[in-house]
């Protein structure tokens, strides 16, 4: 899995390699985070709370995800309430992801690249945020070190150089201790747009797992909180469950 993810929670606790901070480049740090081993599959039950303009909306969904040896990820988000919709994502190495949305009416539509910046189910996550990322699509610059909730982190700027760019840049805060991403800042037009934070990180079957993920808006305010209710790793899954045809 990649250095950013997030809801599928594919990051596995790795061995800390002792090295001086000045000897590491931004690319080195992201590669170490990206290289942490991951499970083959994950199934989670999630509560999504969207806070906008003083109003709280709650949704629940199941996320199933699988990762193969070729670096191809498949994920399916199936909402249970308040409406039944599904989002299927196929992540490809070296090219843009494919995403399809099954609406409550049953109709299936493809998410175009121009739509990747749009809000997903009226939350503070975009369709781009839901997909994975290929580290080779970006350049990285180590900006220094900064603590996040008391955890010493490397602060790494990431700028996309290949494919469609949704954000001007992102800044990753990667733990110096276990290489797990603690925070991500998203920038557009020179300003901080929003921030993602991983909280309540526990070890489940040897896998570092954030039980709370919060995406908060910088200027407009509001936030979307994902609360993990249950997580299972390496359960058997069928390839047919992640085909576009399965949405119909």
What does it look like?
There is one protein chain. The protein has 2 helices and 13 strands, in the order αββββββαβββββββ. It has 248 residues and is mainly beta. A 13-stranded antiparallel beta sheet has the order 6-5-4-3-2-1-13-12-11-10-9-8-7, with helices on one face. Strand 12 (207-217) and strand 13 (223-233) form a beta hairpin. The protein is globular and about 50 Å long. It starts with 25 loop residues before the first helix and ends in a 15-residue tail after the last strand. Keywords: Signal. Residues 1-23 form the signal peptide.
| Alpha-carbon distance between the two ends | 28 Å
**Class computed from helices, strands and strand pairing:** mainly beta
* Strands, count: 13
Average pLDDT value? 87
Radius of gyration: 17 Å
Specify the helix fraction band. under 10%
Low-confidence stretches: 1-22
Residue fraction in strands: over 45%
- SS summary, helix count: 2
Encode the helix/strand succession as letters. Answer: HEEEEEEHEEEEEEE
The biggest sheet, with number of strands, parallel, antiparallel or mixed sense and barrel status, is: 13 strands, antiparallel
Sum up the overall morphology in one term.
Answer: globular
Strand order in the sheet with the most strands: 6-5-4-3-2-1-13-12-11-10-9-8-7
Keywords: Signal
InterPro entries: TP_0789-like (IPR033399)
């Amino acid at each position: 899995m990649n250095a950013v993810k997030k809801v599928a929670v594919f990051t596995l606790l790795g061995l800390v390699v002792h090295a001086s901070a000045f000897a590491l480049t931004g690319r080195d740090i992201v590669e170490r985070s990206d290289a942490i081993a991951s499970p083959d599959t994950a199934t989670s039950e999630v509560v999504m709370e969207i806070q906008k303009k003083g109003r709280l909306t709650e949704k629940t969904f199941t996320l199933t995800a699988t990762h193969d040896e070729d670096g191809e990820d498949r994920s399916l988000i199936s909402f249970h309430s308040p409406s039944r919709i599904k989002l299927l994502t196929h992540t490809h190495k070296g090219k843009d992801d494919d995403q399809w949305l099954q609406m409550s009416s049953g109709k299936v539509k493809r998410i175009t690249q121009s739509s990747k910046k749009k809000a997903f189910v009226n939350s503070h996550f975009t369709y781009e945020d839901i997909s994975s990322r290929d580290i080779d699509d970006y350049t990285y610059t180590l900006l220094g070190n900064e603590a996040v909730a008391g955890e010493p982190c490397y602060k790494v700027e990431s700028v996309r150089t290949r494919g469609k760019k949704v954000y001007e840049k992102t800044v990753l805060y990667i733990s110096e201790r276990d290489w797990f991403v603690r925070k991500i800042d998203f920038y557009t037009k020179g300003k901080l747009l929003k921030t993602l934070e991983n909280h309540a990180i526990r070890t489940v079957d040897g896998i570092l797992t954030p039980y709370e993920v919060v995406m908060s808006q910088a200027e407009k305010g509001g936030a979307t909180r994902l609360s993990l209710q249950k997580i299972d790793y390496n359960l058997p899954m069928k390839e047919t469950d992640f085909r576009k045809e399965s949405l119909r």
